[in-house]
Design goal:
With 733 residues, this protein is α+β, with helices and mostly antiparallel strands. It is 48% helix and 12% strand. It contains 31 helices and 21 strands. The strands form six sheets. Strands 9, 10, 12, 13, 14, 16, 19 and 21 form an eight-stranded antiparallel beta sheet that branches. A five-stranded antiparallel beta sheet has the order 11-15-20-17-18. A hairpin with a 2-residue loop joins strand 17 and strand 18. Helix 13 runs parallel beside helix 15 and helix 19 runs antiparallel to helix 20. The longest helix has 26 residues. The two termini are 67 Å apart.
């Protein structure tokens, strides 16, 4: 402190000196002023020169010194005399160390028993909040150490001065912190605008509040940009949440490991992630955070600060913080080793084991490794098995375990974890909501419905439960009943309700009952960033692709494919008709609840970029013809199929799931009148031997009011603006 006071004194002297110089220089401007006359009288000159042996003007000396300073700076930079990166690194380390020491000193003011000094403690000390009686304040000897000894070295020389300064300014500091709570976001404020099964990882937010390090955030977006050669990481999208479409999504069997699930096999939709390091156009899946212009949707949800440390963990908080700092700085391998060592030293420490699980979780993302992720899942389970685990930490561990199990496709294992959570915390309705999602993910709508009925019986205004209950009712074809639940759930603004899927299903339900408000909700969904437009309402999209309802062959660039289809349309027709005559069972009825009435069936040759060998035996020439065109046979977000529609059929207005494809319709058997298709606000009819091309991510509707059947050949192709890398890496739909 003495040095600081001396610095202030010298600063004042300097200021006074410069002030005198300024007065002197300024007085040279006019000789008639009293100051000028006095200066002349004492030996000065009217041109600003003072009397003296040098006879040099002040201005000249000023310019010489200024130029010397400039050229010295140039020399330092030019000859690289100073390592600026090292200076900045030292400054940053000093800031970290000073921050930790100050936190250690302020720890003696911990008033709410959570082991550190924060806004809640400030409120207690200012009398705005009563001290917690359930948890005693941490003794100074436990709160004092917050950094490793070697990190404290730069400031250990004057620890008493730091403490004195902290005490001198404590009241003003407390006052500032209390007011700052209403002006800035803290780590325990979180905005949740996605469904609870896709929400931001709460444990990351919690670890930030434990050991804040705002200078080097390692965010979720950052983690997603990795080289994806030989990717094995898998993402599993919820079958039940996908918008209805007239294609059945093929599923892959995934054997669930015994430790996760005693049940032998579960059916889930597999999507393998392969994200290019840099893409101008990136897919935006449903349920992600989106910007919104609606101020109501910008409201932040305040989270209660969790208690993650038990009594023992508070005594090793400095070691935990040091390891956590490595994780937050992105030094994952070092952090893993640090937490492993802590687990070895303190095997009964829940927080150390939880840190190890988090590091393994991060390392799995960095290496794109399912094996490492399985290890993290097991470590989260170990945390929950330890004695004296704080309730908040137990909840976080099991929730993250469930989330990671879902990510790997272990849906039933995840369901068991969620069931355990509900047993441990029976009064937490958010966990019951998660359990309902768990049932939906395995297609068990009946049990999911029971869960949401239970939630709504206790908390009838729970928006999350309402939108999911409405979704289930709509899936059961209880269209009119589903509308108020979907509508009120979205209007609640509760976390997890502002999701494009619910706007999609609400509008669709309203259209089916003739409610003209449907487009109002589509418009709102567009305004909130869920839909590209009122007409284009696909949910699995790549941004920036050209969007228009109808396309010409030239616009697509697939003119050779179109010519081949139109040249060989009779061959394609004849093979389709032969299949109809000989094996009617190969034409499967549309079962996505897209028909208001009528009879509509399909015979599929390719799906998700995979050839159906059995089907191609019925249409061998057609399949051979198509093999020449990878833009369609390799389109993993589309199908190639025959489609037959009988008289009296009406297909509800609907949209496809993605904007990554275009759809070609080749007319094979077309009645002269009564068949038409609308895409957006333009209606067209088919012609035999001619191809129509449209973007089925736009709303489209079909009528078949002829007196005989209509047969067409559907060929999906990649959107022409997708890059080769995107075509290889986008997950199949």
């Amino acid at each position: 402190m003495a040095q600081r006071k001396n610095a202030k004194g010298s600063g004042n002297s300097s200021s006074s000196g410069s002030g005198s110089s300024s007065t002197s220089a300024g007085s040279s401007g006019g000789s008639s002023s009293p100051g000028a006359r006095r200066e002349t009288k004492h030996g000065g000159h009217k041109n600003g020169r003072k009397g003296g042996p040098s006879g040099t003007s002040f201005f000249t000396w000023f310019m010489v010194i200024a130029l010397l300073g400039v050229w010295t700076s140039v020399a330092v930079v030019w000859f690289d005399l100073v390592d600026y990166e090292e200076v900045l690194a030292k400054a940053k380390d000093f800031r970290y160390n000073l921050s930790e020491v100050l936190q250690g000193k302020l720890g003696i003011y911990d008033a709410d028993g959570d082991g550190d000094f924060d806004v809640d403690d400030a409120k207690v000390l200012l009398g705005l909040k009563e001290r917690s009686t359930s948890e005693p304040a941490v003794p100074p000897e436990e709160a004092e150490p917050h950094a490793e000894p070697e990190e404290q070295a730069p400031v250990e020389a004057e620890p008493q001065n730091i403490e004195d300064e902290a005490k001198e300014q404590i009241q003003s500091l407390l006052h500032e912190m209390v007011h700052a709570e209403h002006e800035t976001e803290h780590s325990y404020h979180v905005e949740e605008t996605v469904s609870q099964d896709y929400n931001q990882d709460m444990e990351e937010m919690m670890s930030e509040q434990e050991n804040p390090d705002a200078s080097e955030p390692v965010g979720e977006d950052e983690r997603l940009h990795h080289d994806t050669d030989d990717v094995t990481y898998q993402v599993y999208e919820e079958q039940v949440y996908e918008p209805p479409e007239n294609e059945r999504i093929e599923v892959t069997e995934v054997t669930v490991p015994p430790e996760d699930n005693p049940v032998e096999v579960t059916q889930v939709t597999v999507e393998e992630v392969s994200i290019s390091p840099v893409e101008e156009q990136q897919e935006v899946p449903p349920g992600t955070n989106r910007t919104t212009e609606d101020p109501e949707q910008k409201a932040k949800v305040k989270k209660k600060k969790p208690k993650l440390l038990n009594k023992f963990d508070k005594t090793i908080k400095a070691e935990l913080d040091a390891a956590e700092k490595l994780r937050k700085r992105g030094k994952i391998e070092e952090a893993v080793n640090a937490f492993k060592e802590l687990v070895r030293k303190y095997p009964q420490s829940p927080r150390a084991r939880y840190g190890k699980a988090q590091c393994e979780d991060d390392l799995a993302e960095k290496r794109r490794s399912n094996e490492v992720l399985r290890g993290a899942i097991e470590t989260y389970q170990e945390v929950a098995s330890l004695p004296d685990v704080p309730a908040d930490l137990l909840k976080l561990s099991l929730k993250r375990r469930s989330d990671r199990q879902q990510f790997l496709g272990h849906m039933r294992g995840s369901l068991l974890t969620l069931q355990r959570l509900v047993q441990l915390f029976p009064n937490d309705t958010s966990l019951k909501n998660d359990l309902g999602v768990g049932y939906l993910l395995i297609g068990d709508n009946d049990n999911a419905k029971k869960v949401y009925e239970e939630v709504l019986s206790v908390t009838p205004n729970d928006g999350f439960a309402k939108v999911h209950y409405g979704f289930i009712l709509k899936a059961q074809n209880k269209i009119a009943e589903s509308i108020p639940y979907l509508k009120e759930g979205i209007e609640s603004g509760d976390p997890g309700t502002d999701d494009g899927r619910f706007y999609f299903h609400l509008g669709d339900a309203m259209q089916r009952v003739g409610n003209k408000e449907a487009y109002k909700w589509y418009e709102l969904g567009h305004k909130r960033g869920h839909f590209a437009s009122v007409w284009q309402r696909s949910l699995y999209n790549v941004n920036g692709l050209k969007a228009q309802p109808w396309w010409t062959p030239k616009e697509t660039g697939y003119t050779e494919l179109v010519k081949s289809l139109e040249r060989n349309w009779k061959l394609i027709r004849d093979e389709g008709l032969a299949v109809m005559d000989k094996a009617k069972g190969l034409f499967l009825p549309e079962d996505e609840n897209l028909r208001e009435k009528g009879d509509w069936s399909q015979f599929t040759l390719w799906q998700q970029g995979r050839r159906n060998e059995n089907a191609c035996k019925g249409a061998p020439k057609t399949c051979t013809l198509l093999e020449k065109f990878p833009e369609t046979t390799g389109c993993r977000r589309g199908q190639i199929k025959y489609s037959i529609m009988h008289p009296g059929t009406h297909v509800w207005p609907h949209t496809g799931p993605t904007n990554c494809r275009l759809r070609m319709h080749l007319g094979l058997v077309i009645p002269k009148e009564g068949c038409k298709i609308r895409c957006a606000n333009e209606t067209k009819t088919w012609e035999e031997g001619k191809v129509l091309i449209f973007d089925d991510s736009f709303e489209h509707e079909v009528w078949q009011d002829a007196s005989s059947f209509r047969l067409i050949f559907i060929v999906d192709v990649w959107h022409p603006e997708l890059t080769p890398q995107q075509r290889r890496s986008l997950p199949a739909i």
